[in-house]
Amino acid sequence: MACGSGKLTIQLVDEEAGPGAGGPKPFRGQNYEAIRAACLDEGILFRDPYFPAGADALGYDQLGPDSEKAKGEFCAEPQFICEDMSRTDVCQGSLGNCWFLAAAASLTLYPRLLWRVVPPGQGFRDGYAGVFHFQLWQFGSWVDIVVDDRLPVREGKLMFVRSEQRNEFWASLLEKAYAKLHGSYEVMRGGHMNEAFVDFTGGVGEVLYLRQDTPGLFSALRHALAKESLVGATALSDRGEYRTEDGLVKGHAYSVTGTHKVSLGFTKVRLLRLRNPWGRVEWTGAWSDSCPRWDALPAEWRDALLVKKEDGEFWMELRDFLCHFNTVQICSLSPEVLGPHPAGGGWHIHTFQGRWVRGFNSGGSQPAAETFWTNPQFRLTLLEPDDEEDNEEGPWGGWGAAGANGPARGGRVPKCTVLLSLIQRNRRCLRAQGLTYLTVGFHVFQAPYVPLELGLEQLFKELAGEEEELGAPQLQALLSIALEPASVHPRTPADIGLRTCEQLLQCFVVHDGDRAWHGRSLALHDFQQLWSHLQRWQAIFDKFDRDASGTMNSHELRLALNAAGFHLNNQLTQALTSRHRDSRLRVDFERFVSCVAQLICIFREGHPGTGHCSQHLDGGEGVICLTRSQWLEVATF
Hints:
Elements: E1 9-12, E2 25-26, H1 32-42, H2 55-58, H3 98-107, H4 111-117, E3 131-138, E4 141-148, E5 153-154, E6 157-158, H5 170-182, H6 193-201, E7 204-209, H7 217-226, E8 230-235, E9 242-243, E10 249-250, E11 252-264, E12 267-275, H8 299-305, E13 313-317, H9 318-324, E14 327-332, H10 335-338, E15 401-403, E16 415-417, H11 454-464, H12 472-482, H13 485-488, H14 498-508, H15 524-544, E17 551-552, H16 554-563, H17 570-580, E18 587-588, H18 589-603, H19 612-615, E19 623-626, H20 628-635
Parallel strand pairs: 1-19, 2-4
Antiparallel strand pairs: 3-4, 5-6, 7-14, 8-11, 8-14, 9-10, 11-12, 12-13, 15-16, 17-18
Helix pairs in contact: 3-6, 11-12, 12-14, 14-18, 15-16
């Protein structure tokens, strides 16, 4: 389900000003509206104390203390936005962050997404206080980042990102906010578009590694753009960035901004629209701006598609794309961003948090290793197949689909699309210390699907009655039968108390908006999840009850909790042992289940009161910020 960090810090915050209460968390506690009001009241322009203009903000190596310093005022009539915001507003400067700029250019295709990152109502005109703010997604929550208006320049020109319109600055200030979030401009040098895609949307990124015969790619890209996914492509290189004879830049990131099929005689041509974040240097091959093939198309098609302008944007045929590009990166948006009625169907998001600790649960990367099982483990159950689509290539053209339960009618196999993404916290910030991203990954194993035993399902239905749901007393009655010692393990006690059953309901009832949190009841599909976990917990309990006493001591409890996915420090383990042990200082199976249920309820997302823990995890130290009333709910659970 979830796991705690090795170090847990709880910080009590003001009841009204608690982070996450009604919006993004202010980065470094800087509130945009408060800063703006204070500056206007004092008649001064904001100067950011946390990211002051100077060499330290520029970087640590090539842009370090001996590099060009920021200058004074260099634009007489600046504007935040000139007319509108478009992908031509994002042109790369001398910083090697094309991955970030290509993502920002893609973001301009979707105003609803763009305005989330770049809040409206900002400018250099009325009520100007020298302060701007932007919102970025970081590790499960949105943060609001404040910046001042001082930008790095050289000889009167912006050093880094700029707009085609020289007095437009929204993109430059967004770049500064990103640099502030990670410590300096220089740490932005080099990266992958999906990093920025995720930071702009809170979505889930995936990478498609291309080959010449990649099946269904055009359909996948067309559907991704229709679902408002952000899409980019990279022309990989083993010797850095360099320009080819046909106008492409190897080792460079491009935005994929559109798809189109055109008829050329009896031939269907599949075209992709790409954009170079430099705002110049375009493809000169087939279907480029000056290619004569456009003349063979009807005038209305040509007028709708072709823009003859040196703006970095161009069309390219799919087969040429496959010859020159190595990867496609797609960021699928979350339900929070897409809203209640997403264009291409909905997603369910589940977030798990964990860490590898040397000598404790870093079990290695090879499944055959004896310690591999100690790695953090998370279980997913796929219940809802994808919607049927008419496209012969399937909804994702054969990408990222997992089969479920065998063929359906007509020989089709139902599929349930799953995207798995692994995020490392705060690694880009550590570049100044000589550290970079760790080489880590994950394995996906297919676990056998167990339907409930027929007798157990029938017992559930008899106890549930017409409501088809169990309350705590009915659940206790069912478990007293289902967990009979002889049926599982002769030394495992069968009794699960009413209080523990209430805790289990709290953990496994799915909150779908129609059920109240209080007076919970358990539907059949909820009980299937609960039963699967109970069986796993029984196996863990029996494994670490090494003396076959039917109880565990504190050391055995630590090992059992670790195997269940909770990695806790000594202090927290001792507190849990004290709370759940009996008069003989031992923990039996029912007390172990209660302990695990309590941890799940504290750390799971979406739980009222106690669920605020996971929403306030901040930074690499596992800091939890709670109001006093929230803390009391946790402490008195």
